[in-house]
Each structure stands twice: as C-alpha cells, then as structure tokens.
Amino acid sequence: MQRVVQSMAEPDDQQVPDLQHEARGLAGWLESMLACPLCHGSMLRDAFAYSCARCSREYPIRFGIPDFRLAPDPYISVEAEIQKIDMLFKGPPKSFVELLAAYYKLSPENPRSLNTHYVAAMEASVRRGAGILRRLIDAFPSVPRKTLLDLGCGTGGMIASSGAYFERSVGVDVALRWMLIGRQRLRELGIEVPLICANAESLPFADDSFDAVAADAVVEHVRNPLLMRDETLRVLNQNGAFFYTTNNRFSILPEPHLRIAGFGLLPRRLMERAAMWLRKTPYRARLMSLRELNAVFGRISQISLPSYREGELGSSHENLRRRWERLSRHAVVRALVWPFAPQYFIYGSKNSRTNGTVATPRP
Questions:
Q1: CA distances (Å), 219 to each of 106, 179, 288, 320, in order?
Q2: pLDDT digit string, tens, across residues 159-178
Q3: Taking the model in full, what pTM does it have?
Q4: Could you read off the pLDDT of 226-244 as tens digits, one per residue?
Q5: What is the 3-state secondary structure (H, E, C) of 71-95?
Q6: Which of 32, 113, 131, 264 could disulfide-pair with 249, CB 3.0 to 4.6 Å?
C-alpha cells in the first residue's frame, strides 16, 4: 500500500519550530475527524491553536504538534516538559540516536543501568510494531485497511512500519517530548505522518473515525484503562478492530520498567517508595494482572498468550524469545504459565460484543 500522509509544516532551518511558529495544520482527511476531547464538539483552527466550536476550549499547537491533552503526562508537568524539550533541541540538529542520548543526560531520574534496556526496546519497536499490525490483520482479515490510530506511539516504531498495512496512519501519545524524538526518527526514514498529543482516555476524534487502533504496552501507563477501552471503541468504525499488548503484573520475568524480579507482588501503595529506594526513579506504571485485565476487557475481546517473531523483542532478548517460543508450544506449559506470562495480547472489534468471533493471530 502507498502511504498518504502530511505533517505539520516547519521551517527548514530549525529542527523544532518555536512555540509560537505558525503551522498550516493537519492533513484535510485528519482535520475532518477531529473533535474536542472534552465535549466532542467540532474543531476550529487558527495559526497557533485549535478551539472547540461548542465549549470554546483551546488546544495549542506546540512545536508543530497539536496538543489536545486534558491531563499531563503522569511523569512530568506540561511546563517542565516544554523546558526539557527546549534544552533537548538546543544547539545543532541532532539525529534520532543523538536525541536519545541527550534525553537521558537531561533525565537523571532514569538510572543508567536501565537506559540501555529502554533504548534496545525503542530500536526493536519498528519490527515489533509490524508484528502487531500483522497479528491484527490476521485476527480480523475483513477489517478495512484505510486508517490506523497508533495509540501511545512513543518514538514512532509502529508508525514507521504502518505504511505496509494501512493507507493512512496517525500517532497519538501523551508524551510530547517522545513524539518529537520520534518525529526525527521518522524523518530519517523518509516517513511523514501526522502526530497528535492527547490522552488515551480522551481522544480528539469523532465517533467511528478509524478502521483500526493498535497500542503497544500502553494499558499500564494510562490513568484509567476503562476509559481507554471505551474511547478505543468509540473512535473505531462499525467494522473496526483493535489490538493491544500489555505487560503482566505477576510476570515470571522481572518488571519491565525497573527490571526488578517480583516487583509486581508488592502492594501498589508501596511500589513508588520501593522504586525510589531500589532504582532511584519514579514509578507511574500500573501493570494489571490477568484477573484485572479480564475484568476490563474480557467481555469485548480475546486475551491470549504472546508469541514473537525474530527481532521483535530486540537483539538482547533474542535467546529468551526463542526459549519462550519453544516452551509455549506445549499445552501443559501454556496452562501453567497462563497467570504468570510476561505479556498478553488483547484484541477485539467494535462489534465483538454482538458476534464475539475472532481468529487467533498467528505468531
């Protein structure tokens, strides 16, 4: 498929435009989908912001990306994030890899021991994103393949691979700083795609806007998974489908953000304190157990054990991936590890509650 996309306009002599830089706006196909995330009213645009025709709330365009957030990133305030972005992009233009290195230098709250782990996951995200989209299509072969919403797009791994599967894509994330780093990655790959800053629990799109929604390890980072679920279903069209991945609170492997074995067994009220003590870093994730995931998604979706192809977890985890793939073929092993699997796939469709039949996605 040929991708048809358009990004915010920016001056050629700057890597990131000034906060008040005038932008032309989003592509027409996407602007027609926009709706106020608060009241779902229609949107109006001037040079520097979008505003709701119904409730008059304004949403600024920051660094060329519309900011429709109703709540900030749980890890940082909007003001502090803008200051960090200014420092990150100060000086000569930086490559994607250079931006990652600069970001971690500006972020002492991220332990050096974990940075390599984070970077490896970002490097593998293009291949992992392609795998997620293949599985979505395998599970729902009749889903139209015109419009995709990458929910929690981060540094753009899934978006970078989406052109082979969908005609048009848009990336949404609550972290403006990560999208700007991801935008540089996409530029280096020769890909232009619309990016929008917003909350997964309050999306700035009209009902029935997308054919597919995909989210890689996002459920554990939202404030309210129920609202994320409901917003996903709201913006899907009647034949649309979604595919999430999420990490398991009671995984047999170390907690993926802190790399601490058994961390998920702690009472949630103690997790932040333990993270600061053991890793000197804040902890805002809320991993869910299989029981909790079933309570939120069980009636509208299938929840399955994960399966990965080569490279989808990064080179550092390739041996672990191979062992998992061999062991998980056995029914006894699947039954034993089911509550303790490292990750789950969650997938369903807009009309799952009525017909309830989906295929099991291939590895």
A1: 27, 18, 8, 24
A2: 999 999 999 999 999 999 99
A3: 0.90
A4: 999 999 999 999 999 999 9
A5: CCCCCCCHHHHHHHHHHHCCCCCCC
A6: 264
